[in-house]
Amino acid sequence: MNNPLAASLATALGLLAAMPVLAAELPYLDDRSTPEAVLNSLYNAVNRHEYARAWDYFGEDKPAKDFDTYIKGFDGTDHVDIKTGGEASEGAAGSIYFTVPVAVRAVASDGSEKIFAGCYTLRQVNGEIQSPPFNPIHIEKGELKPSTAAFEDAVPATCGDGPPLPKKDTVLERAKAMFAIDYASQCDATQPDGAAAGEPEEHVIHYTDAAGDGGVNDEKAARLFRFFCSMGAYNESAVYYLSTDADTLRQVQFATPELDIRYENPDNQEKVESVGIIGFQADERLVNSSYDDANKSITSNNKWRGVGDAGTSGTWLFRNGQFSLVQFDVDASFDGQSNPETVLDYNTPP
Length: 350
Description:
The protein is of the alpha+beta class. The protein has two domains: 4-167, Nuclear Transport Factor 2, Chain: A, CATH 3.10.450; 172-345, no CATH class. It is built from five helices and 17 strands. The chain has helices at residues 4-17, 35-47, 51-56, 67-72, 170-183, and strands at residues 77-84, 88-92, 95-108, 113-125, 138-146, 201-208, 219-231, 236-245, 248-251, 254-263, 272-283, 286-287, 290-292, 297-303, 311-319, 322-331, 341-345. Strands 1, 2, 3, 4 and 5 form a five-stranded antiparallel beta sheet that branches. Strands 6, 7, 8, 9 and 12 form a five-stranded antiparallel beta sheet that branches. Strand 2 (88-92) and strand 3 form a beta hairpin. Helix 1 (4-17) packs parallel to helix 2 (35-47) and helix 1 (4-17) packs across helix 5. The chain is elongated and about 85 Å long. The protein starts with a helix and ends in a 5-residue tail after the last strand.
């Protein structure tokens, strides 16, 4: 899959595919671009009762002695959920082998659950040495055993006698999945420097919980993810997601004034008569924006034309776990000069 944003969307669909919904409602997912995507596709096929497709994700070593036996193994199963951990990889003789720890929850038609945990081994044969038919990433084997752990905690830390596997950054993966779902069809596939889209710039924000008593337990760390979205002639847009704890992740919506701009001569718009605020709106994208760790703030500078003589700029300050608008400047005169007017200022004490 050449489009990284589309790959993230496929991963996001894999997360949806594991959710307990009717088979007919599940989006079809057949993605063999990464080991995790293959496993998500496997259980998507199982949940859609497309057992021939599920069977095909395995290589020569199939998961049962024959296809009929494999199908019977799902008798009485309503749906199956999968949770993956961090993967390990190792190259050998023209192939790359991947080890992926998983937890699987099988929910029966009567509502009862069984948890299984273990590891899958997948193989990717070097495409340059293959001849038709092409062999994509496939499952070499899966070794799962019943587990007494809760589904959320059942993913193994190691596979066999191997070293501990890398810990999966679930918050980052969720942020990428959310961005892919929300903006796959709206944002550019690559960034201006040629880097892949869908990979965020991350900032860690250390702060103290204002509701606490100032103790050590009140010290927190939020994670801010900035995703490039699009680039025009002179404006670049970005989308932000914020996580204030391991269970909370949301897109940042930025309060922005709605302006009433009046000109002395509306025909040339060189001289401004007045600029007023008539309300506020929430913007999901910021233009020419960046995060300043020293001030814990996000600033933006929206140019209305290329010469930069007109536009708006805003500052949103991080406090109490969220970003609040504290300053907004407007330069509404198309006069070839930069002469912004501050229309909102919460930085200055009353």
